[in-house]
Amino acid sequence: xxxxxxxxxxxxxxxxxxxxxxxxxxxxxxxxxxxxxxxxxxxxxxxxxxxxxxxxxxxxxxxxxxxxxxxxxxxxxxxxxxxxxxxxxxxxxxxxxxxxxxxxxxxxxxxxxxxxxxxxxxxxxxxxxxxxxxxxxxxxxxxxxxxxxxxxxxxxxxxxxxxxxxxxxxxxxxxxxxxxxxxxxxxxxxxxxxxxxxxxxxxxxxxxxxxxxxxxx
Length: 217
Prior knowledge:
This protein is mostly helical. Helices cover 86% and strands 0% of the residues. It has helices at residues 2-35, 42-69, 74-107, 112-138, 141-171, 176-208.
């Protein structure tokens, strides 16, 4: 019985990695659509968002089978519960990648002075998503804590973009629509970093029963 259970856990990890890879591609593709002003990439982002939704349902089915058909111990229950929470964050990452793509469709080309910080923010959150999923699969708490710390880096990059937008609006008229779209895209990227942080924090829960330093569950 335990051998079958371990096989299902291995399948769960495999599918989590696959879902994480879809999220990474979605963020990278939507970032290219923005920075390269390539609206043709928007359909690829939409397809990826659909695939992420499908993967969420597949993983939910695996988790339910593990709960209903096997006999999980407490540590297994924490792992499965954490996985269910984790895929909710990944599904939202897919949604926000699509939101970025849709917003970019109205914005036009990104100004050169904005592209650098926006690209840095995109690369940071892509790395956070990759590392948080990997930390969860390997149950690596040190790697998970490193992701949580990088959220400060993502926040700082978002603040840099926001301050730049405020300065531009103070010194120039007629760029309000572009500036608002840019701010929304940066905020979506910052929120993706928050979701990656959530995933990393579920690593501690799966391993110890603690979530964000709270009581053991």
